[in-house]
Design brief:
By secondary structure, this protein is α/β, with parallel strands linked by helices. It is built from 19 helices and 16 strands. The strands form 5 sheets. It has a 5-stranded parallel beta sheet with strand order 2-1-3-4-5, with helices on both faces.
Length: 457
């Protein structure tokens, strides 16, 4: 009798095995559950076939004549990074099979083959591939509807950022990105580069806060051999490396005054001079800077040069903290949950409404970066496919419990409790109704009706 278990969708499987009887056994086992199988018993031909045709899954013996399973793996991953590969191996080559997993194989199965186990491994590999594809599709849809090169959101604040980015990306305008740590300043800089005429050039990033004055100058402008102790050879700096592309200076507010003077000179002349040299070198670089500091205040204090400040902020982008755009938290959660689950190869498919409400209500002092780290922790430690409030790290749950709604006490009338909860949530969000509705887990129309019902201003 044919096997009643049918796959969610038919998939194309390439079987590479120089033992004809074993190859046919694998093909028959998979065809019985609906997969389309192509059998290759001459391994070298497999490389030609993969060049010509696409496959969802490749099953290959590890040890074969002429071509090894590792070569098949490398070719499959090169031609289609999303293709999954399962290795068939003898007990004597398990160590090599483990290395194959490190190199990108999905799994391995040992001889003699257990066909039921093989079908189970194949089903899991194909489900992972479908999840990765779905994630990519959703990411594209999110970009189309709510984002710009990874900048995701539908709040008014983030839409303004996206609109400015779309306007200035095709230009060479110098940009200053301001915002708290974790708001995604480098993500915006990369988006500007990837949507500019310079996208074929290098995107080069340098954190100015991480380096001392002497090292920072060398990193920016390069140095000649013998320029200082340890300079055993000449070296290009970040400006030269970014020639024809984009240079991103993160935490530019931490740059020493002496380096600020040199940077200003480069912006004005479009020439750099390596440390230990007198010869100027022309550079063609778009400069994007970022800082979490208030540069205007630093200018008044005399710790940042005013002329450099004006040069850097030809276009100024202010990234809002996540607490000021809480309505974006569900979108960000959905996006990164799918991306991280696929990346970590975890069977996590969603999040409960209660858990999402907790995430919506949290203040996120670490901004989007903290949200991503939290989701990654939840996914790695998840016990079930759908994340629940119990999966949320304990340091976040108490913080939410201490929100204004905690002032509601037993004995209060239900409608009074609801009125107080809505009132305090509106206070917490500075009367941002869209944000308050997201935190309360209700629709905006419902919130508007409740505000009118309770006579709230």
């Amino acid at each position: 009798m044919p096997d009643r278990a049918q796959p969610a969708e038919r998939s194309r499987v390439l079987i590479v095995e120089d033992d004809r009887s074993q190859a046919d056994a694998v093909a028959e086992a998979l065809q019985r559950v609906g997969h389309t199988c192509v059998v290759v018993t001459e391994p070298r031909r497999a490389l030609e076939i993969m060049e010509r045709d696409g496959f969802d899954l490749v099953i290959t013996d590890l040890v074969m004549h002429e071509v090894s399973g590792m070569e098949v793996l490398q070719a499959a991953r090169r031609l289609d990074p999303g293709a999954e590969v399962i290795m068939i191996t003898g007990h004597g080559t398990i160590e090599t099979a483990v290395q194959a997993i490190r190199d990108g194989a999905w799994d391995y199965i040992t001889k003699p083959l257990n066909l039921a186990e093989l079908r189970d491994r194949v089903a899991k590999a194909l489900e992972h591939r479908r999840l990765v594809r779905r994630t990519a599709q959703l990411s594209e849809q999110l970009q189309e509807r709510f984002g710009f090169e990874g900048i995701i959101g539908q709040s008014a604040a983030i839409r303004r950022v996206i609109d400015v980015c779309r306007q200035i990306a095709p230009t060479d305008a110098t940009v200053l990105i301001e915002g708290e740590s974790g708001t995604g300043k480098e993500l915006v800089a990369k988006a500007l580069h990837n949507n500019s005429p310079r996208q074929a050039g290098n995107f080069v990033a340098l954190n100015c806060a991480a380096l001392s004055e002497g090292i920072l100058g060398s990193e920016l402008f390069g140095h000649e051999k013998g320029a200082f102790t340890g300079a055993v050879m000449s070296r290009k700096g970040r400006f030269e490396h970014a020639d024809g592309g984009t240079l991103f200076l993160d935490e530019v507010g931490d740059m020493p005054i002496a380096t600020q003077i040199k940077l200003l000179r480069v912006i004005e002349s479009r020439e750099i001079v390596r440390v230990g040299s007198n010869e100027p070198r022309r550079v063609d670089v778009r400069l994007v800077s970022a800082t979490h500091r208030h540069l205007e205040d630093m200018v008044k204090e005399g710790t940042f040069r005013e002329d450099l400040y004006f040069r850097l902020k030809v276009v100024r982008i202010l990234l809002p903290p996540l607490r000021e755009r809480r309505e974006d938290v569900p979108l960000l959660t959905d996006h990164y949950l799918r991306v991280l689950a696929a990346d970590r190869k975890r069977n996590v498919t969603g999040i409960t409404p209660e858990a999402q409400r907790v995430l919506n209500a949290y203040g996120w002092p670490g901004n989007v970066r903290e949200l991503i780290n939290t989701l990654e922790t939840m996914i790695v430690l998840a016990r079930h496919p759908v994340l629940d409030a119990a999966d949320i790290p304990p340091e976040i749950r108490p913080a939410v419990a201490e929100a204004p709604a905690a002032s509601i006490r037993p004995g209060i009338r239900l409608d009074d409790a609801e009125r107080l909860l809505i009132e305090r949530t509106l206070e917490m969000t500075a009367n941002n109704r869209q944000e308050a509705a997201a935190i309360l887990g209700i629709g905006e129309r419902t919130l508007y009706r409740k505000i009118k019902q309770y006579g709230l201003k």
